Amino acid sequence: MWGTVLAHPSAILLVVQLIGVLVYPFMEETGPGAVLFEIFGAVVLALAIWSVRASAGPTWIAVTLAVVASGLSIVDALNPSPALDVASAVCHALFYFWAAGSLMVYMLSDRTVTTDELFAVGATFTLVAWGFAYVFEFVQTVQPGCFTAAINPAGQRTWMELLFLSFTNLSSTGLSDVVPITGQARSVVMFEQLSGLGYVALFVSRLVGLTVAWQMTAAVRAENRSGNS
Description:
Blueprint: H1 2-6, H2 9-23, H3 32-52, H4 59-78, H5 82-108, H6 115-142, E1 147-149, H7 159-170, E2 178-180, H8 183-228
Antiparallel strand pairs: 1-2
Helix pairs in contact: 2-3, 2-6, 3-4, 3-5, 4-5, 5-6, 6-7, 6-8
């Protein structure tokens, strides 16, 4: 049983990230919640490294980014500082984008679709969503007030609000609960919207291409069998 589970690291990463979506709202407060948030974040980083370890890219880059990002987050949680927040957000964003890119290479490296690659499609989506959420955090730190919302419109947006904004933009849902109100913030949001459309188009075209190739191969085999008979 455990062998089957461990054979699908992308599935484990996807499930843990979705669990994070459910538990993050309970960990946004200071104190124990903030500590649990950082611990959970470190677990996600470790699982992401595990998922991309077999990709073509060098694993040490992911490990370095993860260690630096996790360390900066812990230090920032103990001694909050805008500079630490910016550095942590940048390192986290770079890590998640690198991990997402590595999973995409892993999925596109052959002409077959395995079970783990199917889970990797979802895991890559969530990795990109996490990456852009940290980009939003970076923009908000260097430009306070660049995002507004119906609740506490003048305040800084929480991590969950930024992650929610990232998911709605990447999926092209666009619920407008959190809104970018400066040019810089809107530029980043537009990049994510384009990334979401491109991601869907890429993998839909891949599935269509693989289906057509499989049908052509099956037709050739059927013709060969009929010719031999």
